[in-house]
Amino acid sequence: MPKAFRIYLSCMALVLSLSLFSQAETPEILDQQIDKGIDLMFQKKHSQSIELLLSLESIAKKNQWYEQVFRSTLNIGANYYLLSDYGEAVIFYLQAYEVAIEHLGPRQEMTVLNNIGILYFKELDNEQAKHYFQKAYQKAKAIKDRVKVGYYAVNLALVSNKMKQPDSAQSYIEEALPLLKEDPTVFIQAKMAQSEMFLLKKQFTTSEKIALNLLSQLQDVSQIENKVFVYLILAEIHEKQNHLSQALSYGLKARNLNTSMENRSEVYGYLSDLYGKMGVLEKALVYKDSVIMASDSLTLMRNRKLFENEKVKFQIQNYKHELSESKEIMRQERRFLYSIIGISLLLITFILWVLRSNSIKHKQRKTIVDLELAKEKSDYLLIEKQLREQETLALLEQERLKNELEVKNRKLTAKALYLSSKNSLIEEVIKSLSKHKEISDNPELKKQIRELKKHLKTDTQWDSFFTHFEEVNPGFLDRLRQKHDTLTPSDIRFITYLYMNLTNKEIASLLNITPQSCRKRKERISNKLNIPEDTTLHTYLSKI
After folding, report:
1. Where on the tree of life does the source sit, at the highest rank (predicted)?
2. What pTM does this model have?
């Protein structure tokens, strides 16, 4: 069947439906048809809904049924709002507002004012949105409609939050909550606004408690948009407290929900900023690309909706023209087809241009990322090389100091051995001389021998040895005495020989004792120091 003929049949069907609507004799029957048009709107059959509501509006105007004129006009505007054609929506809202002012009352007026406020809120014109919400709120108060006061107070709280006015938002929320207990859907909206308000006030604990409580209530599929909102609030709460990993967890939960393209763009933008704050630049760039792609997709969807709007408008105009001038129908159909072809060509051209632009941007970003990664890798390798060189120098310096210490300790050992042998020699000479009777009869020689013995007892040479030991091993003896205050001077002297890594034989020679006595003394000192069985005495001393 030719497409033009199908369109012609559709127009005839509309003419037939108009004749049927004209048979509506009462406002009640017309209300039923308006309800049908509203159902079509919520089923996203906007074209059918608008056509039906326009026909009903015409019938209501003819019969001066102003309540029905208001309802049909208002819901035509609502259709255009859902199609993102806000300009057309405003036109029909204003028409409904004029009907309400001239023929109805404040109840209808405040409904239109609230819808206009929602339009401005969607367009991010918060000043105008608050202005219209305020007018609706005042009218609801004037007629003492408590439920509507609660509805509009919630809207005022949400827009106040967007304007960073948490004190104003708090006053509206406190007024709204008691009025909305019978309406759980709007009550949830109020709690969401309250959570966001406490976040702005930096009362993070209270805000988080409310948000977590909301999550347990948002289990229905229809609450996905609200769930995304709550997840983002929780993410911002943890971000403000510098709990970035927890903030990221909530951001990813929001991302995983199958939500609208507008919310995806917001979530991707938040994740991009969060990854940037965490220093994960690669993921930040990926999500920034996702924001661009989501924005492009949203633009494309809006273009499609606008195209659908234009198509609906064209069909309506064509329908009206069919009623007045049936001879022009074929020419209008051809115009319609040409318009579709032209718009399709423009749309295809636009899509190709967007894809090409995105491809170029992606390549540029990839090149930038590759260059940054190469630079980071080069910097990392340079730093690693410098660290290795520093470690090598440190090891060489440590080895040099160790060798110097061993040399100095060996010199001390040689000096100690020399002192020991010298003292032994002096003692042997004294013993040998003391055996001769001639010397015992000679007072002068006896005096000299006493001086030698006195010199051995004072042992100033050993004091000099300890002075040199402290110079080579600074602070060791002080740390040893501080840690083990029960050690005797004899123990300390024995420990110094062990610290210099002298053998048992060498220590026995210095102290004029047997090697066996030296080993026993070593065991006694180990027990005195409470050294574990798996640790040697020299290892323990090296760590002091």
Report:
1. Bacteria
2. 0.50
